[in-house]
Amino acid sequence: MTISPTTGTDPRVTPHPGPRPTVQLLDVHKSYARGPGTVPALRGVSLSLTAGSFVSVMGPSGSGKSTLLHCAAGLDSPTRGRVVIGEHDISAFSDDALTRFRRDQVGFVFQSYNLIGHLSVADNISLPLVLGGRELDPVWRADLVAAIGLDGLLDRRPGELSGGQAQRVAIARALVTRPTVVFADEPTGALDSRTASDVLDVFRRTAARLGQTVVLVTHDPRVAAVSDRVVFLADGVVADDLGAPTVDEISSVALGLGR
Asked: Which long-range contacts (CB under 8 A, 24 or more apart) does 235-239 make?
C-alpha cells in the first residue's frame, strides 16, 4: 500500500517544520502478552520525521524507546496504527514484502554490532547486498569505507577489531544499500567518549551527504545533543519534543521524566 502526496497526512499528526517526511508513525500502539493479559509498550505514538534529519529518542527505562525503534524499522509490528516510510505503509506489508523492503530501504545498527565472526570486514559490509541479490558498486564501497574510516581493515575479522572499529563496520553495513532511513539502538553505549564522538560524526556526515533520516535511541544527553531533534518518551507516549537542544536542556527534561 502506498500513500499519495496529497492524502498521506494524518490529522492526528502535527507536521514537523521542514521537508516532506520520510518516516511517519501514525497513532502507533504496541502491547505484549504477559500472563493472562497484555502490557502496553506504546500507547498512541505519532511522529513525523523529515529527510536528512538526525533525531534522538530518549526516556526512562521501560518508556518504549526500543519498541518504537523496532516498530518504526519494521522489525516488529504495531498492535494498532501505521508506520509509513517514504510513501510505503509498511504496516500493511506481508512478511516477505516487509523483509525485502527493510533489506533495501532500512538500515539498522545494534549496540552489540551483530557482525558475522567468520566473515571479513569487507564481506560483513556487503552482506545486505549479497542477501538481496544485488551487485556491490566498488566505487561506492570505497567511498563509504573511506568516509567511515575503515581503510586498511577490510581483510580483518570482527574479532580483530576494537569496539569503535566494529561499530564503524556495523554502520557501513547499514549504509551500504543507501537506505532511506537508518535506525540505531544505543550505538555508542559500549564505546568510550572519544570513539563515541567519532561514531556520531560518521552518522552525521554520511546522513547529511545521502539525505537520510537517522533515528537513534540513547540515554546520554551528550549524544542526544548532537541531534537536530530529541523526542522524549514516557509510559509509551511522547512526553516532550525539543529542537536543537543543549545538553543542559536535554538533561533537565530527562531528569523531570525520571531518566
From this structure: 235/43, 235/63, 235/64, 236/30, 236/40, 236/41, 236/42, 236/43, 236/45, 236/63, 236/64, 236/67, 237/42, 237/43, 237/44, 237/45, 237/64, 238/45, 238/46, 238/47, 239/59
What is the model's pTM? 0.85
For residue 192, how many other CB atoms are within 10 A of its CB? 12
DSSP 114: -
**Rounded distance, CA 197 to CA 149, Å?**
13
Q: How confident is residue 211, by pLDDT bands cut at 50, 70 and 90? A: confident
Confidence label for 259 from pLDDT (cuts 50, 70 and 90) = low
User: Kind of pairing, strands 80-85 and 88-89?
Assistant: antiparallel
Instruction: Tell which residue, 202, 99, 83, has the closest CA to residue 145.
Output: 202
Mean pLDDT for 141-167 is 90
CB atoms within 10 A of CB 34: 8
In contact, 74 and 106? CB cutoff 8 Å: yes
Mean of per-residue pLDDT scores for the chain: 87
* Domains delineated in the chain: 51-77+94-257 (3.40.50.300)
